[in-house]
Amino acid sequence: MVLNMEKHKRQAILGKAREWIGANGFSEFTMSKLAKFCGIAKGTLYNYFDNKEDLMVKVVEDRVAEIHHEVEEILGGSQEPEGKLRSMIRQGLAFYRDNLDLLMLYANEVKIADCKFPSSATAHGRFLREHLEWFMNRFEQLLSDMGVKRERRLLAYFFHETMKNLMSFNMLSGRELDIDRDADLLYSFYFHGVEAFQ
Amino acid sequence: MVLNMEKHKRQAILGKAREWIGANGFSEFTMSKLAKFCGIAKGTLYNYFDNKEDLMVKVVEDRVAEIHHEVEEILGGSQEPEGKLRSMIRQGLAFYRDNLDLLMLYANEVKIADCKFPSSATAHGRFLREHLEWFMNRFEQLLSDMGVKRERRLLAYFFHETMKNLMSFNMLSGRELDIDRDADLLYSFYFHGVEAFQ
Amino acid sequence: MVLNMEKHKRQAILGKAREWIGANGFSEFTMSKLAKFCGIAKGTLYNYFDNKEDLMVKVVEDRVAEIHHEVEEILGGSQEPEGKLRSMIRQGLAFYRDNLDLLMLYANEVKIADCKFPSSATAHGRFLREHLEWFMNRFEQLLSDMGVKRERRLLAYFFHETMKNLMSFNMLSGRELDIDRDADLLYSFYFHGVEAFQ
Amino acid sequence: MVLNMEKHKRQAILGKAREWIGANGFSEFTMSKLAKFCGIAKGTLYNYFDNKEDLMVKVVEDRVAEIHHEVEEILGGSQEPEGKLRSMIRQGLAFYRDNLDLLMLYANEVKIADCKFPSSATAHGRFLREHLEWFMNRFEQLLSDMGVKRERRLLAYFFHETMKNLMSFNMLSGRELDIDRDADLLYSFYFHGVEAFQ
DNA sequence: CATGAATGAGTATTCATTCAT
DNA sequence: CATGAATGAATACTCATTCAT
Question: Which of A30, A76, C111, D135 keeps 20 to 30 A from B128, CA to CA?
Answer without folding.
Answer: A30
